[in-house]
Amino acid sequence: MSVPVFSALSEDKSALAPLIWPCCPLQGLTQAEQQQQRSLAISALALMGPGSIPAWEEAAQMAAQLLRMPLAVATLAHGPTEYIRAAYGLSSLGVGNPLSQQRQLPLEQGLGLYILDSEQPLLLPDTTDNPVVAQSQWVSAYGIRAYGGVPLMTSEGICIGTLAVMDMQSRSFSEQELGVLAMAARWGMSEYERQQATSTTATAKLGLRVSPGGQISAMATPPLEALINAVRLNLINQLTQDLRSPLTTVLGMATMLSREIYGPLTEKQREYTDIMCHSSQTLMALVDEILELNTSQPERPDLVPTSVDIATLGQQVITALTPLAEKAAQTLRFTIEPGEHHWILDQRTVKQILYHLIFSIMQVAGDNSDLCVHACRRGEALSLVMWLANPWLGEGLPSEVLTVFQPPTDRDDWIQTMPLPNASSAPQELLGLLLSQHLAQRHGGQIRVQGSADSGCRLAVLLPVLDGAKVRAEATHVAAEVGVLR
Known about the structure:
Elements: H1 31-44, H2 54-67, E1 71-78, E2 81-88, H3 98-102, E3 104-106, H4 112-118, E4 122-124, H5 131-134, H6 137-140, E5 146-153, E6 159-167, H7 175-200, E7 207-210, E8 216-219, H8 223-258, H9 267-293, E9 306-309, H10 310-327, E10 331-336, E11 342-345, H11 347-364, E12 370-378, E13 381-390, E14 394-396, H12 399-405, E15 414-415, H13 431-442, E16 446-450, E17 458-464, H14 469-482
Parallel strand pairs: 10-12
Antiparallel strand pairs: 1-2, 1-6, 2-3, 4-5, 5-6, 7-8, 9-11, 12-13, 13-14, 13-17, 15-16, 16-17
Helix pairs in contact: 2-7, 8-9, 9-10, 10-11, 11-13
């Protein structure tokens, strides 16, 4: 088996073009037809949601570590854009690099375009050997010298993206290393499809009805209504996703103006550009959280055990919510018990629990309040304790929060949470508390109220550690199967 690489085809530099494997399943189709096939496959697998894809994250990490490469990405090609849906080592491109923030680049400016067109692997020992390749954003903007990529193929044989490893130093690739990369891509794609298939086999789903008076009750969604809701939510999700591009442009231009790239600013102009930058960042954070809800997708029943740095995750949530807290002169604090940073948890679930609990409490907290979150160990579980500290009202929680979690008949210091269908008295602004409660229960944990009205109530989220043996076993299995020699 030959390994595809870029090489000079003639002395005429303008005529240089990539050499790729000639066999192409989409050969004969126009570019529009290829994009249509990809879009249909992406829609069928519900891949246009927000954030990263856990199975692809594991595949990228596996490929980078086994091949000893500093950077690995799994991308999804949709329309004219290539979205980075999983990444390992993006920080190696420099602190605050645009890809870490935007997680996307124009398809025509990347290197995955050649893999998508041919649906074959592509290895570039030295990207600077070819001026066509050197013009790509990976090379010209980020200094990538070595590139190895393979297609991400669905079970239907449609190429929807790429899994690629990269290095800032030139290096050669062996056929064995290409096999490792291909194995990681197949595993990541098949694992995601397995999880998606499992979620769609559910015959009944839990729904919520909010009455005009703000009452919440469980309901069974009729098939036709469920279909209409799915279409509506999918459109909302897509429109929200489309907001990212203009927001990114506004934020980028405002940042350039604030740095006085186009000339010095007056005091009033600087004030306006600072407001523009701050508002754009806040909007971007809100868009990301709307997409993170991803209510158009069936809820994934399988938790993904991942090593989570709870201090880093908590700080990410605090950073996202700080602009909103500042409007009410509120302060958000996250502390952690020494030595308790790393936990095996479902990262996406924990992040949503933290975000929606903090956001909901902020809505009913008074001005100038401090919302404190402390992470610690309680037995074998992670405990996330939350409370409000107000200079005039003291410590505790708003009564609106307590009514959601505290049944009046339970006298224990630690009060068991109410099941989601019975929580029918929560006002609409506290729906995030109900979502957090449901997510905690799905993780095998619970949310409790600690303390009393006299001593000050606190909210505690107890999340059990997941079994990480599956993740380690799968990585070991792939390494053994391809015969990687360290």
